[in-house]
Write a structure and sequence with these properties.
Elements: H1 2-29, E1 36-43, H2 47-60, E2 64-71, H3 73-81, E3 87-90, H4 96-104, E4 110-124, E5 131-133, H5 134-141, E6 151-154, H6 160-169, E7 179-181, H7 185-194, E8 198-203, H8 205-208, H9 215-218, E9 221-223, E10 225-227, E11 234-235, H10 239-243, E12 250-257, H11 264-273, H12 275-283, E13 287-288
Parallel strand pairs: 1-2, 1-3, 5-10, 6-7, 6-8
Antiparallel strand pairs: 3-12, 4-8, 4-9, 4-12, 4-13, 10-11
Keywords: Signal
Domain PBP: 36-274
InterPro entries: PBP_domain, Phosphate_ABC_transporter
Length: 307
C-alpha cells in the first residue's frame, strides 16, 4: 500500500511539473507589445527605411522578432483585406471602400502616419538637363510623345509609384509604348544608369540609402528637380523641400495594424511614431511626421576640458 502511494505521488508530481512547464512555455511564447514574433508586409518602395526601423527595434527589445515581407502596393492591400497579413507599411491611407470592407469583417484597423516620403525622377548622367516639368511626364503618360523622353521606367505594374503617377495623369492604363515596368527599384536605377534618355521613377529612399551593390549605379544617375503643375520653380526630393511642402511628388507613409489586440504590431507602430523611430526617419533623408524634440543645456560659464 505504501509502495502504491509513493508511485501515485510520483505520477502526480511528474504531471504537475509537466503542466507547469507547459504553462511556462506558453507564457514565453505569448505575444505582447514588446515581445513575440510577427511578419509585416511592406510596400517595397520603402523597404530600406523599414529594415532600419526593425533592426533598431529588435536591438532594443531582444524578445521581439519581426520579419519584413516586401511586396507591391497591390499585393500589400490584398494581403490586408484577405487577412493574410495583420500589419502593413503603405504609401497611402485606406480608402472608404477598404474601410467599409474591414468594418464588414468586424475589423478596426489602426492607421498611424509616420513619415513624409517622395517619389523621385532620375536620369542618366549623360543627360545634362537635371530639370523636368511634371506636366511633361503627365503628357507622356497620356500618350503624348516628347523628344526629351525616350521612355518612363517603373519598378513594376502594381507598385505605388505607378498608381501615384496614373492618378496624377488621370489615366486608367499606362501607354503601350514608351513605358516600361521592371521588378524592383534597384533594377530601375541600374537600367537608367546604363541608358540615356530614360526617366526612372523610384522611391527616394532607395537613392538616399542604396544597397552596397548599387553604389556605382547611383553615381551614374541624376536626381531631377521637378516643376509642379501650379508652380514656376523647380524643387528636389530633399528634407527641406518636403518640410516646406514645395516638392510636388510628396506622399505620406503609414503603418496599418489590423491585429485587433495589444500585440507586437501596436508596439512597433508606437516605436516608429515615437522619438527613436522619428530620429531614424530623420537620418534616412526622409521627413519625420513629427519632428523629434531637442534638449538644450544652457551653461552660465564655459567649463574647460581637463587636460
Amino acid at each position: 500500500m505504501l509502495k502504491y502511494s509513493k508511485v501515485l505521488g510520483l505520477v502526480v508530481f511528474v504531471f504537475l511539473f509537466a503542466m507547469c512547464n507547459q504553462k511556462s512555455k506558453s507564457e514565453t511564447k505569448k505575444e505582447t507589445i514588446l515581445k513575440g514574433s510577427m511578419a509585416i508586409t511592406v510596400d517595397e518602395t520603402v523597404k530600406q527605411i523599414i529594415d532600419d526601423q526593425v533592426a533598431v527595434f529588435e536591438g532594443t527589445y531582444y524578445d521581439a522578432k519581426i520579419t519584413v515581407n516586401p511586396k507591391s502596393e497591390t499585393e500589400v492591400f490584398n494581403d490586408l483585406l484577405n487577412q493574410k497579413a495583420n500589419v502593413a507599411i503603405t504609401a497611402r491611407d485606406l480608402t472608404k471602400e477598404e474601410r467599409a470592407r474591414f468594418e464588414k469583417n468586424k475589423i478596426n484597423p489602426r492607421v498611424t502616419p509616420f513619415a513624409h516620403d517622395a517619389i523621385a525622377f532620375i536620369s542618366n548622367k549623360g543627360n545634362n538637363d537635371t530639370l523636368i516639368a511634371l506636366k511633361t511626364v503627365i503628357d507622356f503618360m497620356q500618350g503624348k510623345a516628347d523628344p526629351k523622353i525616350k521612355g518612363l521606367v517603373f519598378d513594376n505594374p502594381n507598385s505605388s509609384t505607378v498608381r501615384y503617377i496614373k492618378e496624377l495623369a488621370k489615366v486608367n492604363e499606362v501607354p503601350k509604348t514608351g513605358v516600361f515596368s521592371l521588378k524592383t527599384n534597384n533594377e530601375v536605377i541600374k537600367f537608367v544608369s546604363e541608358n540615356d534618355g530614360m526617366i526612372g521613377i523610384v522611391g527616394v529612399n532607395w537613392l538616399s540609402q542604396p544597397t552596397p551593390d548599387m553604389i556605382e549605379s547611383i553615381k551614374k544617375i541624376n536626381v531631377l528637380s521637378v516643376k509642379g503643375l501650379n508652380s514656376d520653380k523647380y524643387y528636389s526630393p530633399t528634407q527641406s523641400d518636403l518640410a516646406l511642402d514645395k516638392y510636388p511628388l510628396a506622399r505620406d507613409l503609414f503603418i496599418i495594424n489590423c491585429q485587433g489586440h495589444s500585440g507586437l504590431g501596436m508596439g512597433f507602430a508606437s516605436f516608429i511614431a515615437g522619438d527613436i523611430g522619428q530620429r531614424i526617419i530623420l537620418k534616412s533623408s526622409l521627413l519625420p511626421y513629427r519632428t523629434p524634440g531637442r534638449k538644450l543645456k544652457i551653461r552660465n560659464e564655459i567649463i574647460k576640458d581637463k587636460e
